[in-house]
Write a structure and sequence with these properties.
This protein is of the alpha+beta class. It folds into two domains: 194 residues, ATPase, nucleotide binding domain (Nucleotidyltransferase, domain 5), CATH 3.30.420.40; 155 residues, 2-Layer Sandwich (Nucleotidyltransferase, domain 5), CATH 3.30.420. It is built from ten helices and 15 strands. The strands form two sheets. A nine-stranded mixed beta sheet has the order 3-2-1-7-9-8-5-6-4, sandwiched between helices. Strands 10, 11, 12, 13, 14 and 15 form a six-stranded mixed beta sheet that branches. The protein is flat.
Length: 372
């Protein structure tokens, strides 16, 4: 039985939300069950506007419920009378592939982030009405008190919407907005070492320096860099050979990262694709090395010499581990467990600990909330 809020009577869940530059992730744990296994779900951080009446035409009869005509990993969220397509449905939206809002810093405190959060929450939690208490984060390059307040203000509210045709109500509370990489530090780091986190996403690279669990903000840096460079290179490689690899590029990259056999695509052999990915990682690795060197190399010392541990996280960890080990002591370098979702898991750890240390942090002035 879930613990319920005394005023709303809604069941309560704690969660960690990572809006991601390529994939968005939410991890949740019910309030009554710290002993329960944390549930984690990830979707592409792409949102496309659509028209649900077109999807309903899949049905055998005109009144077939939307939930029955949607395929697995297809999501429709209706907010403010606008239909948003997510997951595998984005390709059927009005704007083709939709948008991930990369390059727009407002994405972290806009409808884009709200839609990702609500879709993930509604797809994971079966209750029609619930309270979600989350911790989330900003890229290091955007980590200011003003921007943290914007994120909290943008996400925190009561939402009434349709998810896959079913009415839902979610009260979102934001306990803390941290810096990307901080979740990894909490989830995987220790309490005493000098350590650094490399959180490598689709289009973001966050470098977080810490003494134990204390971030040294003056040394934390961020850049627009990540797996997206490998994606762009692979698409360009295909275009040069008159083959469109855009829809298959991420799958090919994942196969490479998992040491799987790369399939041939049209006139391009799997061996040639694997070689291009390898070459692309080497090219990107030079950029990566220069950025890390600028921030972690003191005169006359080896790179990252002062640190006891270098943690690699994010989806990019699987691609750049070998490159990073070439210029940083490999005994220090560790890819964290479940690297692609480690940030969200860490944010959930923080959310639960906030309740234990300062339960009233989740209290809101209910008279000031407007339904969104």
């Amino acid at each position: 039985m879930y613990v319920r809020d005394a005023r709303t009577r809604m069941p309560i869940f704690y969660g960690g939300f990572d809006p991601g530059s390529g994939n968005a992730t939410l991890s949740v744990v019910p309030s009554d069950g710290i002993e329960h296994e944390i549930n984690v779900h990830t979707i592409p951080s792409i949102v496309s506007e659509g028209d649900v009446s077109q999807i309903l035409k899949r049905g055998i009869t005109p009144d077939t419920p939307l939930a029955q005509v949607l395929h697995e990993k297809e999501y429709v969220l209706n907010l403010h009378d606008v239909d948003y397509y997510l997951g595998d449905l984005i390709k059927e939206g009005r704007k083709g592939r939709g948008t991930s809002a990369i390059g727009d810093q407002n994405r972290y405190w806009s409808d884009h982030s709200r839609i990702l959060l609500l879709t993930l929450a509604a797809s994971m939690i079966p209750e029609r009405s619930f309270e979600l208490r989350i911790v989330t984060a900003l890229p290091v390059s955007l980590y200011t008190n003003e921007n943290r307040k914007k994120v909290k203000s943008a996400l925190e509210n009561v939402y009434r919407f349709l998810f896959n045709g079913v009415q839902r109500e979610v009260l979102v509370k934001v306990g803390y907005v941290g810096a990307e990489g901080q979740g990894v530090l909490v989830h995987c780091g220790d309490d005493s070492s000098e350590q650094v986190i490399f959180d490598i996403g689709e289009r973001t690279f966050d470098l977080v320096v810490a003494e134990g669990q204390r971030m040294i903000l003056s040394r934390c840096k961020g850049d627009e860099f990540g797996v997206g460079q490998l994606f762009d290179d692979l698409v360009a490689f295909g275009k040069a050979r008159k083959v469109n690899l855009e829809r298959k590029a991420h799958g090919l990259l994942r196969a490479y990262a998992n040491n799987q056999v790369i399939p041939a695509v049209s006139s391009i052999s799997g061996e040639d694709i694997a070689q291009e990915i390898s070459d692309s990682i080497k090219r990107a690795g030079r950029t990566l090395k220069n950025f890390i060197s600028q921030n972690l190399a003191d005169d006359g010392e080896e790179m990252a010499a002062q640190f006891d541990r270098v943690y690699l996280a994010g989806g990019g960890a699987y691609y750049f581990e070998e490159t990073i080990r070439e210029f940083i002591d490999p005994h220090k370098v560790k890819v964290v467990e479940h690297a692609e979702v480690a940030s969200a898991l860490g944010y959930t750890d923080i959310a639960v600990s906030l309740h234990e240390k300062k339960a009233d942090i989740w209290e809101l002035a209910y008279h000031g909330i407007e339904t969104r």
